[in-house]
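S.,

Sequence below, as promised.
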Amino acid sequence: MAFVFIYHQYLTKGDNLKQFQIAVNRLSHQHVIVIMSVVVFLMLANWLVECLKWQHLTRRLAPISLWKAIEGVFCGLTGPYSPPTALANMVAA
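The prediction came back faster than expected:
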């Protein structure tokens, strides 16, 4: 289903893809480094805020350390990408 949607989008909006490719080709190496650095920084900041949120939300039920909140957030991030058998092994352990 997703393949059909993506293929349809490519067929109907192929010019947008070409325009995007032209715009990306105009970027210098320094701009790419700066943009990727900002993206990585914002991603780390988002994860930290997420950890602080969970630490704050669980403080009355079960106070957890920042490290445990970080473990929980990363477990939540990797869970959807784990195959079912690996997930079952992780839960069983």
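The radius of gyration is 20 Å.

Coffee later?
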